[in-house]
Amino acid sequence: MSWVHTKRKKVKTEYGQYSGMTLIEVIVAIVLMTILVMGILTALTNQITLLSRSKDITITSFSNQSEVEEAIENIKINSKFSNLSTWKNTINDYSTISNRNDSIATEGKTGNEVELYKMQLVDSKGKTTRVYLSPSLASDENYMIALEAKEVDILVDNDSTKTVALITGSSTPTVTGRYTIEGSNYYASVCKWYASIPGVINPQWPHDYEQILRKVQETGLEPTYGTVDLQNLTDYANRYVIFTVQPADGNGIRGAEVVSKSILIQGVEWKDGNFPWADKNGNFIFDGFAVDKDAQLQYSMINGGLDYKNFEVNISDVEKMDIKNSSLFIPRAIDGQNIYSNNIYLNVNTGNDYEKDIVTTNPIDWKIENGIHFANKIISDNQVSLKTDNGQIVMYRFVELDTDGKAVLDSGIPRLKNPGSFNFEDIYVAGPRIYQNLGSEISSLNNIYLGAYGTGKGFIYLQPFSSINGANILLEAEEPITIYNSAMTLQPLVGDNSSMNREITLNSIKDISIRSITGLTPNYIKGNTLTKSTIIFNTNQNISVENTIFKDIDVSLLGNSIFRGVSWSENRMLSVKDGVVLTLAKLSDGTKVNNIGNLNLGNTGTVKFANSMNEDLENPLELTLIDIGTNQMNITSNYGRNIGYADASTSSFVNGVFQNIGSGNTNLEYKIDITDVSNVKDIQVSFDGSQTLTVTGTLNNPTIPVSATLTVRDKYIKDKNNMPVEIAIPKPITITN
Question: Phi/psi of residue 236, each to 5°?
Answer without folding.
Answer: -120, 25
